[in-house]
Write a structure and sequence with these properties.
Number of domains: 3
Strand content: 15-25%
CATH architecture of the largest domain: Alpha-Beta Barrel
Mean pLDDT: 91
Number of helices: 14
Strand order of the largest sheet: 12-13-11-10-9-8-7-15-14
Distance between the termini: 43 Å
Helix content: 25-40%
CATH topology of the largest domain: TIM Barrel
Structural class: alpha/beta
Length: 429
């Protein structure tokens, strides 16, 4: 057990110390604001304040964990060992920066609370992030900080025991369109047939006819192939299904269609299931609740997982809504249009609401790769970038999460490319 002295124990301090010390490193901690108790303690101890009390392990603090709410901060990024850091402190500190304040800033997405320019989809753009501007977006800085913190602690306390994390890979499959031709109703099918002819897409037209006649499988119905791969190689996977109403923004398959429900049930035997948010469920609690119940009625057990793959994360309100509806796990923390670590980490962590100054029960599982970035990178370049980041995550014993779409693996897209990337990420020969 590590006794931590701080003049004031705040919700922010409790949150970030528990995450780094306990969740990441496996160190049990206890807080005290009593100098007498701290001095009398003959075990492992550390102080977090403006100056050390004695010869204990000491990290000088900055003010961010003592504050309420948020405001503009002056941040100067500087090199530190094999990475970078910010919120520098004096040489008296056993670390040259306030690791807890810097980690809190990234994990809570502090900068997304501040005024910023939205992208064309109304989202926080990667170009507005500190990580992008300072060129550490593709580095899991929080994880590296924790590793280096562990090394320094080991030097100070050789008998201290730590948790050994294990490198993992997890793929999330977002299913916005379960079928491209089938199960869309007569009107949508006739319109699609007409569009194919008008645009002279004869190959697509004949594929549509073959699918209707069950001569050929619907190109987006790739679930058998994916399940076979999952079973053969023991891939950790989650399938996120959309069950939104048909609208201008959500043109998915009706959730009542028996083949669609059958695919959901089939996949649920081999992988975890979650809800892929539609346009309105990403914005409205009532709609989100309705869609959650719909999917629960199909799988017949409580729904724990959710993915917002396209829309603004709406920090903190949206995450609070997810917690209110008793979702346990969110997989939306990443950039849909670039590679990297939106929150500076590959490790899962609890969401913290800066407005309310509370730790949420909702667990955030950040992703690194979204197949949308395939539009931005050439095939070989993308493979190289993924390989570099993959190695960095492996070095910190983190989790490499990737988001694919079922349509990525269809013949209408570059399915060979995405099967190759899927195998690369999971290290399948």
């Amino acid at each position: 057990m590590l006794l931590v002295y701080t003049q004031k124990v705040t919700p922010r301090i409790i949150y970030i110390f528990k995450h780094i010390c306990t969740n990441m490193l496996g160190i049990q901690i206890k807080f005290t604001s009593k100098i007498e108790e701290f001095v009398a303690h003959d075990g492992f101890k550390m102080s977090y304040g403006k100056q050390a009390l004695g010869n204990e392990f000491f990290i000088q603090n900055t003010d961010i964990l003592l504050e309420h709410g948020f405001g503009e901060l002056e941040i100067k990024v500087q090199p530190w060992g094999n990475t970078v850091c910010f919120f520098p402190v004096s040489e008296n500190s056993d670390l040259p920066f306030d690791i807890f304040a810097a980690s809190f800033y990234l994990l809570t997405r502090y900068e997304e609370y501040l005024p910023h320019v939205k992208d064309e989809a109304g989202r926080f753009p990667v170009s507005e992030s500190l990580a992008y501007k300072e060129s550490f977006l593709k580095t899991p800085v929080v994880d590296l900080w924790a590793q280096n913190f562990k090394k320094v602690l080991k030097d100070k306390f050789p008998e201290m025991e730590f948790k050994n994390a294990q490198f993992q890979v997890e793929s999330i499959f977002a299913v916005a369109q379960g079928f491209v031709f089938n199960n869309k109703g007569i009107i949508r099918s006739v319109v699609g047939w007409g569009n194919d002819l008008m645009k002279l897409h004869f190959h697509r037209f004949f594929d549509r006819v073959k699918s209707w006649m069950k001569i050929k499988k619907d190109p987006f119905d790739v679930f058998d192939d994916l399940v076979s791969l999952i079973k053969k190689h023991s891939i950790s996977a989650i399938f996120m299904f959309k069950v939104s109403d048909f609208t201008l923004y959500d043109r998915n398959i009706n959730y009542n269609r028996i083949p669609y429900r059958s695919n959901i049930k089939y996949v649920s035997d081999y992988a975890k299931i979650g809800l892929l948010l539609g346009h309105y469920s990403s914005q409205t609690l009532k709609v989100l609740k309705t869609e959650k119940i719909r999917l629960e009625n199909i799988i017949h057990y409580p729904l724990e997982n959710v993915l917002n793959a396209r829309y603004d994360l709406g920090i903190p309100e949206h995450f609070n809504t997810l917690a209110e509806l008793e979702f346990d796990n969110d997989y939306s923390m990443g950039y849909p249009d670039d590679l990297g670590f939106r929150a500076g980490t590959s490790f899962s962590y609890l969401f913290y609401d800066i407005n309310l100054e509370i730790t949420s029960p909702l667990k955030i599982h950040p992703y690194i790769f979204n197949s949308n970035v395939g539009k931005k990178y050439g095939s070989e370049e993308l493979k190289k970038e993924i390989a570099k980041i993959h190695e960095r995550v492996k070095e910190v014993d983190g989790t490499f999460r990737a988001i694919f779409k079922n349509e990525d693996f269809s013949e209408y897209y570059n399915n060979k490319r995405y099967y190759s990337l899927l195998k690369q990420i999971h290290e399948i020969e």
